[in-house]
Input
Amino acid sequence: MTKKIIVLTGDRPTGPLHLGHYVGSLLNRIELQDKYKQFVMLADIQALTDNMANPHKIRDNILDVVLDYLAVGIDPTKTTIFLQSMIPEIAELAILYGNFVTLNRLKRNPTVKTEIQQKGYGDSVTVGFLTYPIHQAADITLFKGTLIPVGEDQLPIIEQTNEIVRAFNNAYATDILHAAKPLISRVARLPGIDGKAKMSKSLHNAIFLSDSADTVNKKVMQMYTDPNHIRVEDPGKIECNTVFTYLDAFGTDTTTIAQMKEHYQHGGLGDVKVKRYLADVLNGMLEPLRQRRAVFAQDQQAVMACVQSGTHNARAVARETMAEVRHVLGLNYF
Ligand code: TRP
Output
């Protein structure tokens, strides 16, 4: 029997969503919601793993992230949007999964390793942070998510999830847990405007979906290009040139972009001109989002009501899976 495809993803509500989220998974979600059952999680508990001193910051971002979802076209009548912290079964399941994962395995998880480095935690990393991949495995499997639209950086977490699925199913000779397949977007990893690593709020290199046209213009003007392209007449490099990376990611007029690349490499095309073009491309794309966002923002209660009913529906699914897990382990006493 082929298993039903269930899409599950989430975001840490540590700030408003940015262009990296947009190409990394939001575009895929908009498409997938028409084909499959889809859950989108506001991963507030995961966000707390590095924001425990600041829980209200996370809370305050929830509405903004939901507005971003609605603005891009995630439709709550098709997609179940829910709050992680209101599903205690996730924590319950994660505790059990902890017994299938070694400390060494967690320390070797490349995603977590990079984050520990970026945040400078070293050996002072908390248990909560180090173990968030286990918690994420619970996010995914509790809803029997089989298709996970994520950015490239999340691949090691999906891999770890599947190790847990195999270990659990093997240990209890069951098939209640379903393996998850990542769905990587066309643009696997968008660099920040500084040209580094990936776009991220904490690295201060993000363009947010809710940025005004003016802010977008300013950020684009600061973007990293070819540091050796000093005079307009000089030939410039398009490799590792963030402006061209973004044009490839967001531009639709491929003929014009190809011409600009050639002109730039040949010499005679200035950075400012290319940046102005990119800013227009981005603002053209973001303008309809801004307008939709403004409409939804007028009724915040209705927006939060969507999340409440999504959470209610998600909880029912969570309870069902947790009952199955308890049954398998003989934890169904009364
Ligand atoms: N770790 C993901 C991120 O940082 C967010 C997330 C939490 C997630 N739970 C998830 C993604 C479950 C996919 C599936 O972007």
About this structure: Residues 300-329 form the longest helix (30 residues). The longest strand covers residues 6-11. Residues 8-12, 41, 43, 46, 136, 139-140, 148, 150, 154 surround tryptophan (CB under 6 Å). The radius of gyration is 22 Å.
